[in-house]
Amino acid sequence: MPITITNNTKALVYFFLINFAISVFHIDSWNNANTTSRVLPIVSYFENGTFQIDKYHQLTPDKAKIGRHYYSDKAPLPTLMIIPVFGLLKSIGIITSNDGSFYGESVYILGALICGVIPFVLILCLTFIRLRRNNLFSLALLSTLPFYASFIFIYAGTFYNHIISAFFLLLGYIFVKDKKYILAGVFSGLAFLCEYLIAIFIVIWILQILLNERKLKPSFLFGIGVIPAIIFILFYNYHFTGSAFTMLYKYHTFSEMHVNYGFNAFSLKALWGLVFGSYRGMFLYTPILFLILYYSLRHFYLKTFRNVVSIILSNYVLLPSILVILTLSFYFGWWGGWTFGPRYILFVTVLLLFEGLFFVSRLKFSNLAFWSLIFVGLILTFSAKITVLYSIPSEIQFPLTDLCLIALKSFEFNNCNILTYCFGINPVIANIIWMIISGILLYLLSNLQDASEVN
Q1: CB-based contact 176:222 (threshold 8 Å)
Q2: How crowded is the C-beta side of 215, counted as CA atoms within 13 Å?
Q3: Which of 113, 226, 348, 371 is close enough to 189 for a disulfide, judged by CB 3.0 to 4.6 Å?
Q4: Cα 271 from Cα 175, distance rounded (Å)
Q5: Which pTM value belongs to this model?
Q6: Shortest CA distance to 220 belongs to which of 182, 179, 256?
Q7: pLDDT tens-place string over residues 402-419
Q8: Residue 425: helix, strand or coil by DSSP?
């Protein structure tokens, strides 16, 4: 029997809590190069009052060496977001030092919650709000399953920058569509401070707003909203590198980053690999995009070439997404190192899903195709989630068969989960329990209906 919620806010809270319960189970605390590079400035700040990571720099290759000191090379906002919360928990005794050191699981967990789990669930909530005016499908499942059946879900519960940057950019996009341009600029700027590649979206949006609105003021207001982020990053660069226009990436320990920040010749292999390739292809790691692509092509087929070009040029998702992928095709490390899926374009994937799901929700799409693609995505994503997570060597071409299934057969399950952390439960049993509970929660979610949908 459907669960009827008479208040839209209560329905949203119910939706949030179910998805939070599913997403918070796996909290990454592994010593990964990327996450450790974000953790160490926090640790150093509370140990010696600086962002120099000299004491711990050997824990990560992701760092910049400026003079005699080491620093994190990462975009700063995710790290800075954790500092006040870490300080608060330290002041009330929840977080304590170990022989004067604050390095440990607690800082990884805090970063994973604030920059991974919470923004991921909020992305689902925003998608649910966007879709629930339609009646052709279980909208709670349509808002969630495509994300769970995607590489996006792998990074929920990790202290990477990709989920939080996607969340801020999605808010920026929503405000652009609502013509609240100052707020759109503010959140787009916050997204940029999490992930520098988002600068492409900001520049293109300024031009598209001018094109679509045919007056200067909206673009100007958007720019006003972005200015605080620009001022901050210029000051941040100057403070660490001595030049407002030189980023810490310029001093990365990888020599490839020293020239043009790692951007060189265009690679067709990279372009194919980012979009359709079996190695890091966005469509392979988010299979529901094939359904969205099919119905989008059908929609475009009925239009003239001129109309199609006009739609792409004016669309706030399509044009900047295409340009981001093309730009990344010039990058020497386009595949993203040890990773699951094309993590560098995770924010692009989130926006494509957000708009694409809204587009297909208005159509009578094939249920067979939908469930088949979701099934494939869930198998791929969940097999990684309960075993190796994102810890997939660059040379692995087919993670499911070359790594995940092998880990499953040898019972090497992900030990970064709440049951193992808190109760010492065997990771195999813990992950089986999680899958069972997740199935039950998704079933409850499928019965969630807004009162406006019930006669």
Answers
A1: yes
A2: 5
A3: 226
A4: 30
A5: 0.95
A6: 182
A7: 999 999 999 999 999 999
A8: coil
